[in-house]
Structures are given as structure tokens and as C-alpha cells.
Amino acid sequence: MLKNTILYNNVRNLSRLFQQAIDDFERRNHVSVTIHDLHGIFYSPDGTPLLPKRQSHQHHFCQNGRKNSPKYERACISDCAVDAETFAHQHLESFIHNCWKGVQEIIVPVKNREQIQLLLYVGPFRGPQTPPEKFIEAWKELPEGNETDYTRISNEMLLLGQGIFAMVEDQRIGGKVPRTRRELIREFIHRHAHEAVTLTELGKVLNLSPSRASHLCKHVFGLSFQYLLLKERMSRARNLLLNSDQPLKYIATQVGFSNVFYFYRMFRKFYGMPPGEYRICLQQENRNC
Fold it and tell me: 213-234: per-residue pLDDT in tens?
């Protein structure tokens, strides 16, 4: 009980520290920062986000029209949650993204072992493309970026993002290198739950055959490797459903499901209702979810 209380307090303190650092960055640079936690891992054990209200673009220009027009909502999600992230995964470096609304954003990937963990969106800036007529007046009020500003902001944001990721990882493992087989299994699932991993890969980490690795999971946790993997994926999916506006198909892929229908079926089996219904239930703060 004491250990859980200490962990909760540490996570809460980290969250406040992150928020303060990002707020300071925004004030200094006159920008808004959005953070896409691609795999749903930046959460406390009880599901509280470490970076609350950062998963979707909160700048008034970005929000303009989204809630009243399904067309605009789809365009924004397609542009930032699909197209921009696809480009980021292909290039793995910071870049300037031209939004369909006529603005530019700096997008900064934060990587670990050559895998993107966070995508940091910084902006918006008035871009060279004229926006749809509905947004022209608001567009004119945005700052106009330049190459020098973009480079400086990108470098600062990368350092901040890397610092956030390193502190979260250090907190998660308690500053220790996993040594026991129980710790190694937990660490393996945490790092690879969003991938198509099997007992073969786990066995290589443990220096065991797949069958012995399977037996060890059941012996140590009382659960199969497949269930441990599913449990982690479901927890991450729940986090993203509650704290982001990303489409269900996208969330399924991000947490490790190649088949969206299988994701729906497993989610319903795990939580008692389909993911779309569960998201609405959570947003309404229904305790029966």
C-alpha cells in the first residue's frame, strides 16, 4: 500500500513538472504544444494521463469548426493522426507539416531504440498556403515562422521531449536495470506490446525455448503470455480512448492489433462493451464503465 502511494505521488509530481515545463516553452515561443502518445504508455497505473489535455490540438485555430462539422473533424484527424504520423515513421526526423487549414506545424519525433514513442506538434504558424475562406481572418492573426525559428524551436522541443521520456522511463523501472526474470518479462511486454511479438522473441530475451518461456509466464504471473500481452494492450487502448480523439481503427493499430475486428471483439470481452460505446461512457464520467 505504501509503495503504491509513493508511486502515485511521484507520478503526480512528474505530471506537474512536465506541465510547467511545457507551459513555459509555450509562453516563450508563443506556440501551442500537442503531444501524441502513440502507444498509450504515458499514464499512471490507475490510468491518469501524465500529459493531460495534450493529446489533441487545443489551439483555438485548430479547434475552429471541428465540433460543428464532421467533415472538418475527419480532415483534421486524417491530416495529423494519419498523414503526418505516417511521414514521421518513414523519416524519423523533425519536419515541417503543412496542414490543410493553411498553417504549418513543427513535428518532432521522440524515439527510443529507433521507434517513435511520442510525436510533438508545435505551432500553429501562418503557412504559405491560403486557408479555406472560413479560416482566413483567424489565419492572418497567427505568427509567421521562418527557418531560423523552426530550427531553434525544433531543437528545444526535442530536448524537452527526450527529457520527459527519460524521466518517465526512470520512474517506471525505479532507476534499476531489470534483472529478475519477472522484471524481464514485464519490461519485454512494456516495450513490445504494440508489436507483433511472440513467445519466440520473449524466449530469446530469457535464453529459453518458447515452451519454457510460456511455462515461466504461467509460473511467475499465474497468467499466460498471451493474456499478459492482451491486458497491456487493453489498458493502453483504454487510455487512448479516454484521452484522445483518435479513431478506433487507428487506436487498434497503435496498441498492437493488425485486425480491427479482432480488437473490437477482444475489447468487448475485456471491458464488457464495444470500444466506441466505452469511449462515450468514459467521456460522460459514468462509473459503470
Answer: 999 999 999 999 999 999 999 9
Q: How far is CA 217 from CA 183, 211, 228, in A?
A: 11, 10, 9
**CATH at 29:** 3.30.450
Q: Are residues 20 and 151 in the same domain?
A: yes
Note the pTM of the prediction, 2 decimals: 0.81
Number of domains in the chain: 2
CA distance 255 to 43: 14
CA neighbor of 115 nearest in space, from 95, 85, 83: 85
| Residue 232 C-beta-side C-alpha neighbours within 13 Å | 24
Looking at residue 7, its pLDDT comes to: 46
pLDDT at 172 over 70: no
Give me the residue label for grid cell 525559428: 149
Residue 288, domain member (yes or no) = no
User: What is the grid cell recorded at 170?
Assistant: 526512470
Cα separation, 113 vs 254, in Å, equals: 17
pLDDT above 90 for 107: yes
Q: Which domain holds residue 129?
A: 2-173
Say if residue 117 is in the same domain as residue 239.
no
Q: How far apart are CA 159 and CA 180, in angstroms?
A: 32
